[in-house]
Design a protein that fits this description.
Helix content is 39%, strand content 17%. The protein has 698 residues and is α/β, with parallel strands linked by helices. The protein is globular, with a radius of gyration of 31 Å. The structure holds adenosine-5'-diphosphate and magnesium ion.
């Protein structure tokens, strides 16, 4: 009996029409798929409540009692029906907005019923809207009474009577049938080692829990399985990659690096920078291709690390490239790096969308001949026409903006894939990193250059704007510069754009004596560049912008970041924006402006921002508040990201255990050929491609 080939169509109560709904709405085709459609919630129906016990935070309750009276209120479309229901001691109101006639026909005063529903408090009295009502005889058989599962369905399914209850009915006989045992999907040794519930029992109990302990063990097992297979998949691909591709060996630290280190380094490296450079150097001599993720908060000095490891590539006769997500940032990297290398004989070039054709051709020729050594640019860099003589190292800055496909293109730029260093300023919670970038080694810069004063962050309501303007004036008069950032979200682009322009006009009126730059995504690159440059050089004191300035821009003299409509930004984006200030020696400030009416999670976001500057703490909080699917970087990475039962925000420890177990397995049997582990290879193969091509993420 292979459940993965049994079409649900043939299950009692399904048939072709419902099967079609299952297929289209939930991608459920086989009995195995259906068994994998776990309930999202359970309701304890093992006991009857007394009305005196009710509180509002109870999700669902069931109460035994009698209807004392009905009352129809209103007429026609607006009609509703209420009933007073008594458990013998207290009463509660039942309310129906639909099906009034049906209810009155069906249910009788004075008969004993079991009602079931969610109590809500209204006018200091409890009521239940549209309760389920059953006669005592109608109650499910005792073995179904315990926990009642609730299944996700869609609007379309519900309209066709394929609701949670219907799914429960379809599943019940299936579960009865598998109770005698189905093949295990995790090797016995692992089941024993971690004392996991077996698959059969887990599936039985995830759908129809015998009790809360059995449910909890079933959940543990299924979470473990999900995480274990993800990790096994990632690690196996990594293993395959390591064994398939050789890596260039950069054994030398030579003149380029040493000259820079001894004569050009503008400041002492931080301890964290030194450590990370060491970690990368160690990768360079293993003979394997490096795939490393460098996480470092905004302003932690990643560019310098990038430059120094590129010099090592040069020392070994290789070329290096540095890719940035935006033109502004690429320009800035180019400026910073050429300045730092001033006086050294290194050929650095820049390619972006606005590089002229002639100039581009020269650069292309240089790269092909090997004369060009370091190339900096946007994704224009990875166009097919760009060819290298000997590309050895690729550095990708602010990685979450590059799609997987774009990154993998780089691999073909040499006969052997170059080393890859991915740098991100959006710290990723460890659990996410292990899952999204599980095949990358991770380095962390967890220390800011000395002398930085922590940015002070304040949350102001818009009503305080006037006071804020006074503060901005004071800062500018002291020689500082100010950013004012407006949200720009695609669906309301026109409106946001107006806000930005109005904001600009407003600032011009308020500060006629100051010069103001404006930058937004609709500008021509040259125009954008001009405004940006004026702010960088200090010619303009204010920068009014959309989030195009979010990434990387470095103006140490800027000391205030004002974020308009801050409620519309996610946590990590707010943190990124804040990182534009606090780069110089002067005290910096971040002001979050919002309206007065804020949701609970928005309030929480503001609270976190004002409390901490720690990017890792913020990313963890972000994960908790929004769930992994919404985390910036996850979405942009183009990875469809949905776990069935495990939760990366909460199951970090389990993930760690699962990853270690997977490592263990691969250490013992990398090919998964032994009797014990060959089932794993079979399972991996079966894993649908709705999961992810993890191996391509590098
Ligand atoms: P990020 O990690 O956000 O890309 P940058 O590389 O732009 O950070 O560095 C931020 C600023 O810190 C730059 O002005 C850079 O010159 C400076 N910086 C980098 N490393 C050090 C250091 N070790 N000591 C002092 N300043 C440093
Ligand atoms: Mg940077």
């Amino acid at each position: 009996m292979d459940l993965s080939t049994q079409d649900i169509k043939f299950l009692p109560g399904v048939g072709p029409r419902r099967a079609d709904l299952f297929n289209k709405e939930l991608s459920i085709y086989t009995v195995e798929d259906l068994l994998g459609h776990y309930p999202y919630r359970y309701v304890d129906r093992s006991r009857f409540y007394k009305l005196s016990e009710i509180s509002e935070d109870m999700p669902f309750i069931q109460v035994k009692g009698k209807i004392m009276q009905f009352e129809k209120i209103g007429t026609g479309h607006k009609q509703r029906l209420t009933a007073i229901f008594s458990d013998g001691e207290n009463v509660i109101e039942l309310i129906w907005f639909k099906g009034v006639r049906f209810i009155l026909d069906r249910y009788k005063i004075g008969v004993e019923y079991v009602i079931f529903g969610k109590p809500t408090l209204f006018n200091r009295k409890y009521n239940i809207v549209h309760p389920e009502i059953e006669t005592v005889e109608q109650l499910p058989p005792p073995d179904q009474m315990g926990f009642q599962p609730f299944y996700n369905t869609t609007e379309k399914m519900k309209n066709n009577f394929l609701n949670s209850k219907a799914i429960q009915k379809i599943l019940y006989p299936v579960i009865k049938k598998i109770e005698s045992g189905i093949p295990e999907t995790i090797p016995t040794s692992i089941i024993q080692r971690f004392r996991l519930m077996n698959l059969t029992e887990s599936l039985v109990n995830i759908h129809f829990p015998k009790n809360s302990e059995a449910l909890s063990r079933a959940r543990q097992r299924l979470k473990f399985e999900e995480l274990f297979y993800i990790q096994l998949n990632i690690l196996r691909q990594t293993h395959w990659r390591d064994n398939t591709f050789k890596g260039f060996i950069f054994s030398k630290v030579g003149d380029y690096f040493n000259t820079f280190f001894n004569e050009h380094l503008p400041f002492e490296l931080t301890g964290a920078q030194k450590r990370v450079i060491k970690e990368i150097r160690a990768d360079f001599v293993t003979g394997k291709q490096m795939n490393r993720l460098l996480q470092g908060d905004v302003g932690s000095g990643k560019t310098l690390v990038a430059l120094m490891v590129m010099l090592i590539a040069l020392d070994n006769g290789f070329q290096a490239c540095l890719m940035a997500p935006t033109e502004i940032l690429a320009n800035q990297h180019f400026a910073t790096i050429t300045e730092m290398l001033d006086g050294m004989d290194v050929k650095v070039a820049l390619i972006t969308g606005s590089t002229k054709k002639k100039e581009r051709e020269v650069i292309h020729a240089d790269l092909l001949s090997g004369e060009g050594q370091i190339i900096i640019g946007t994704h224009a860099l990875i166009e097919d026409t760009v060819q290298f003589k000997n590309l050895g190292l690729v550095i990708i800055d602010e990685q979450h903006r590059f799609g997987v496909a774009q990154r993998s293109k780089l691999w073909g730029k040499n006969v052997q894939p170059p080393h890859v260093l991915v740098m991100t300023a959006t710290p990723i919670p460890r659990t996410l990193a292990m899952t999204l970038y599980g095949d990358l080694s991770v380095s962390v810069i967890d220390e800011l250059p000395p002398g930085r004063k922590p940015i002070q962050t304040y949350h102001y309501y818009e009503s305080k704007r006037n006071a804020l303007l006074g503060f901005l004036r004071k800062q500018i008069n002291e020689g500082r510069q100010v950013y004012v950032v407006y949200p720009l979200i695609q669906e309301s682009e026109a409106m946001d754009f107006r806000n930005l322009e109005e904001g600009y006009e407003f600032m011009k009126e308020v500060f006629p004596d100051f010069k103001i730059s404006m930058v937004h995504g609709k500008m021509k690159p040259a125009e954008k560049e001009e405004h940006m440059q004026k702010f960088v050089s200090g010619e303009t004191q204010l920068m009014v912008a959309t989030t195009v300035i979010e990434v990387g821009v470095n103006v140490p003299n800027a000391s205030v970041m004002v974020i308009e409509s801050a409620e519309r930004f996610g946590l990590s984006q707010l943190h990124q924006l804040r990182g534009r200030v606090g780069r110089g020696a002067k005290q910096s400030y971040c002001i979050l402006l919002t309206g007065v009416e804020l949701s609970k999670t928005t309030r929480k976001r503001m609270e976190i921002m004002t409390r901490t500057n720690d990017g890792f703490e913020i990313s963890e909080a972000d994960l908790m508040l929004r769930g992994p699917g919404d985390i910036e970087g996850t979405v942009q990475s183009g990875i469809p990201f949905e776990l069935k039962i495990a939760d990366l925000a909460k199951d970090g420890q389990m993930l760690e255990i699962a990853r270690n177990a997977a490592m263990d397995v691969l250490e013992k049997d990398p090919e998964l050929k032994s009797d014990e582990y060959k089932m794993l290879a079979v399972q991996l193969k079966k894993m649908k491609t709705n999961t992810i091509n993890w191996g391509a993420i590098s």
